Amino acid sequence: SAVISQKPSRDICQRGTSLTIQCQVDSQVTMMFWYRQQPGQSLTLIATANQGSEATYESGFVIDKFPISRPNLTFSTLTVSNMSPEDSSIYLCSVQGRHRYGYTFGSGTRLTVV
Amino acid sequence: AQSVTQPDIHITVSEGASLELRCNYSYGATPYLFWYVQSPGQGLQLLLKYFSGDTLVQGIKGFEAEFKRSQSSFNLRKPSVHWSDAAEYFCAVGAGGNKLVFGAGTILRVKS
Q: Predicted confidence band at A103 (pLDDT cuts at 50, 70, 90)?
């Protein structure tokens, strides 16, 4: 399965600022996904990022708040914009392997907004 | 809409004891079901999955799960828990369009 490198692993940010999270995969993948895991909560899909097209956002998530780039088949970024303490979460990158639902997850970015 | 319920937020078992983590799903069609484990500071690791066929599925680390359509359940079991199994466990259902819907997770504590 694919190996994912996600950076940074953690960060503490001031409210009102933005943070860009990087997801690098060691092989070419078609579909990449970004999830949010709020404290004590489960994982919620933010958006699906396909190379060469705009990301598809889930209900409750908007591009202005969570812009995503997908410049090639091995890399994606998620930006958390104009952060507030409510954005404190773990953000995870995931990719789909050869098989349907064969997902691999990155180790996550633990974000704390103060 | 698809949903997954994990009724137990925390479970504590003694090392060497058996374990069962509960998962109930809501999905209109034949579900694709998964169990993931997340250790502190780590990403999610797939333990096992069910797509079709034999309803008793074997996974890694000695885990197994049984799909019961009549009960809409996919409970995870292990006959003898090790201290290294302490982690958070997530049940998920494939929700179509390559999406996964996750349950809220169950935190497993293992006491020696």
A: confident
Residue A58 is encoded by which pair of tokens?
Answer: 């889930």
For B1-112, strand residue ranges (E) read 3-5, 10-14, 19-21, 24-26, 33-38, 44-50, 56-58, 64-68, 73-78, 87-94, 100-102, 106-111
Q: Do B100 and A100 touch (CB under 8 A)?
A: no
Residue with tokens 């995503």: A68
Among the partner-chain residues A9, A31, A44, the one whose CB lies closest to the CB of B98 is A31
CA distance A90 to chain B (A): 10
Residue B46's nearest CA partner among B63, B30, B29 is B63
Length of chain B in terms of residues written: 112
CB contact under 8 A, B90 and A43: yes
Instruction: Decide: B13 and B81 in contact? Cβ < 8 Å.
Output: yes
pLDDT, one tens digit per residue, over B48-101 is 999 888 999 999 999 999 999 999 999 999 999 999 999 999 999 987 767 889
Q: Do B43 and A105 touch (CB under 8 A)?
A: yes
Percent of chain A with pLDDT over 90: 78
- Are B55 and B66 in contact, with CB atoms under 8 Å apart? yes
Taking residue A37's Cβ as centre, other Cβ atoms within 10 Å add up to 21
Confidence of residue A98 (pLDDT cuts 50, 70, 90): confident
Which residue, among B75, B30, B38, has the nearest Cα to A101 in the 3D structure? B30
pLDDT of res. B38? 92
